[in-house]
Design a protein that fits this description.
Elements (H helix, E strand, L loop, with lengths): L7 H7 L7 E7 L6 H10 L5 E8 L10 H19 L7 E3 L15 H11 L6 E5 L4 H9 L7 E6 L12 H5 L1 H9 L4 E4 L9 E2 L1 H7 L4 H12 L10 E2 L3 H8 L6 E5 L2 E2 L5 E2 L6 E5 L4 H13 L4
Parallel strand pairs: 1-2, 1-4, 2-3, 4-5, 5-6, 6-12
Antiparallel strand pairs: 7-8, 9-12, 10-11
Helix pairs in contact: 2-10, 4-5, 5-7
Amino acid sequence: MKFPDIADTVRLERLKPPAGKVRAVIDTDTFNEIDDQFAVVYALLSPEKLDIEAIYAAPFYNKRSSGPGDGMEKSYDEIVRLLQRLGISPENFVFKGSTDFLSESTSPVANDAVSDLIARAMDSGDESLYVIATGAVTNVASALLLEPEIANKIVVVWLGGHALHWPDTGEFNLKQDLRASRVVFDCGVPLVHIPCAGVTSHLHTTVPEMREHVKGRGEIGDYLFEIFSGFHTQHCGWSKVLWDIAAVAYLVDASLVPTQVIHSPIITSEKTWSIDRSRHLIRSAFMVKRDPIFRDLFSKLELRRE
């Protein structure tokens, strides 16, 4: 598959942190855990910076699903539950994605999410469409493989893999679909990489903090508190990281998620990083500002207080 040859000067221009409001879509394995829910809500409660045009359900496979297709269906249903509590219609807004991961021997298959992403990207003119991805990037990679020209139209903000200094990068989002992960790092699409361990792993919060700042903030606040407090039976001395909100925070205020320009790393067969400084450039986060990110999320939820 031949992708467009994007000059580094052009790529760097598109990788500049956005100064104003941007068009965006969300690609999320929402039922995989509980942090995607917070990220989706955070994005939808940030209309001053994000014009969310669509949400795509991504596949996942763990103890909360019987397979990637079931994971995608459960994620779709979870997105709808969130929208119901926010008073937003899912019609022509939420789209089902892939029912399986990519492999080296299979070709990407179009689905509602992939078709919508391609259509929106190709219709974006000179304005970049930001793709906020918080799960396996199966849908995003499939769209790039089916229509390589969208690499000239989108900027992918993906939370996946670990920090470059981490001894491995066998993180859930990345390892679920290795081919898709490699496509995103290898094809040259403008990419903002938000690593997990070593970077967004600082975004911990607790049941008392959730009770104080999330519970009672409308139906959506009560639901977020319910799934957070129900995630673990023992709350004494327990905290939970909400990784995915970092991808949204970067677009809300890039100073909250400091980044640097680096050469795109290579994912090895051992699920580690390898560096080749002749490769194209991406932007990568090296820290998160935990307190102001949560303060911004909580202040937006406060407006839902009944």
